[in-house]
Automatic annotation (TrEMBL):
Lineage, uppermost ranks: Eukaryota, Viridiplantae, Streptophyta, Embryophyta, Tracheophyta
Gene Ontology terms, MF aspect: adenosine kinase activity; ATP binding
Annotated EC: 2.7.1.20
Name of this protein: Adenosine kinase
One annotated GO biological process: adenosine salvage
SUPFAM superfamilies, sorted: Ribokinase-like (SSF53613)
Task performed by this protein: ATP dependent phosphorylation of adenosine and other related nucleoside analogs to monophosphate derivatives. Essential to sustain methyl recycling.
Family from the record: Belongs to the carbohydrate kinase PfkB family.
Catalytic site positions: D296
UniProt xrefs under Pfam families: PfkB
Ranges where the Carbohydrate kinase PfkB domain occurs: 36-335
Cofactor(s) listed: Mg(2+)
Record's catalysed reaction(s): adenosine + ATP = AMP + ADP + H(+)
Amino acid sequence: MEYDGILLGMGNPLLDISAVVDQDFWNKYEIKPDNAILAEDKHLPMYDEMAAKPTVEYIAGGATQNSIRVAQWILQFPGATSYMGSVGKDKLGEEMKKNAQDAGVNVHYYEDETAPTGTCAVCVLDGDRSLVANLSAANCYKVDHLKRPENWALVEKAKFYYIAGFFLTVSPESIQLVAEHAAANNKIFSMNLSAPFICEFFRDPQEKALPYMDFVFGYETEARTFSKVHGWETDNVEEIALKISQWPKASGTHKRITVITQGADPVVVAEDGKVKLFPVIPLPKEKLVDANGTGDAFVGGFLSQLVQEKPIAECVRAGCYASNVIIQRSGCTYPEKPDFA
């Protein structure tokens, strides 16, 4: 099978800037342990301050980009994955591009000249983390970039597509173009519910894309919000997964499969009017380092087997493997080679 460019992701690229800081730093910027916030003006100087630290690490991040990097890592076929999103025309954008390319991903960023590259400060103190995200250029993606011949060629080459729900806030038009191409050409299109606020406040563009989704991923809290928003009057994740899988489709070529993760509880998979549960890999609490990015990693692992046309059970197994690796490390990072057999 030809794997070159088989999987294309689109989303909001953020460069994770991770560094060990001290208590004075936390006090200065009024940040708390195990918290994630959007940057306010008072937080903006922290990025340069962290960049100057000897312990600083740069990791290409953002939900879809994390999933694509993990899929690429497990696949180990250079250039099997491609990715598009918006960065600033700056040093951080170059850093992210290098990071993603070193991971084997074929990145085609839109470079916005009006805003800096989106960043997420990962402030580490005594093993605790505080995340401060500044979206900036990630918010500026334009559908015109997708339509450029060299970028649309990536769409035409791919057979599988993955887009996190966060991109609905930026370029629903781009999502729709790719979704319609997938349906017209018998390809596999997948998205993630991503966050409760997406299901609540971006319901219209989400519903417009849903008929095209062959795979719907999500976490239990998002699934329950989706149910509430649509008046389903059930909190049962299995029932919700089943209802999402039975939502009308734009193309009858592929059935829809819903995959919902529940942390340490089994993964819920709904297809063909039935629900299956798959146990996750148990992990002692003392081995849990950082849960940030584990959902993204699950999707990346799942996709790595899906593009190889492996059975769903094997896709879930790879997803559980990937999230188990990432949760034991700082940030969405992984060893040089996977040991997934």
